[in-house]
């Protein structure tokens, strides 16, 4: 999955797979990557628009 850098104090990058409904978050502090399954496209749109 391709991730994109974001302006955040906690996150380094985020990625989203629309076909499989998977959200990936890469954290700045330790470089860990968390995956969230069954993350619907409407929820992703709200997530990326949040401040």
What does this protein structure show overall?
With 51 residues, the protein is of the alpha+beta class. The chain has one domain (3-49). 18% of the residues lie in helices and 41% in strands. It contains 1 helix and 4 strands, in the order E-E-E-E-H. A 4-stranded antiparallel sheet has the order 1-2-3-4, with no helix packed on it. Strand 1 and strand 2 (11-17) form a beta hairpin.
Task: Please estimate the helix content.
Answer: 10-25%
The major sheet is characterized as: 4 strands, antiparallel
Overall tally of structural domains: 1
The arrangement of helices and strands along the chain is: EEEEH
Rounded mean pLDDT score: 95
Going across the major beta sheet, what is the strand order?
1-2-3-4
The span between the termini is: 23 Å
Subunit arrangement of the protein? single chain
Descriptive tags:
51 residues, alpha+beta, globular
Which secondary structure elements does this structure contain, and how are they paired or packed?
Blueprint (H helix, E strand, L loop, with lengths): L2 E3 L5 E7 L4 E6 L5 E5 L3 H9 L2
Brief overview, please?
The protein has 51 residues and is an alpha+beta fold.
């Amino acid at each position: 999955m391709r991730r994109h850098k974001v302006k955040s104090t906690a996150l380094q990058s985020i990625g989203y797979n629309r076909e499989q409904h998977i959200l990936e978050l890469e954290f700045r502090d330790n470089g860990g990557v968390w995956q969230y399954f069954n993350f619907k496209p409407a929820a992703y749109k709200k997530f990326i628009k949040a401040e």
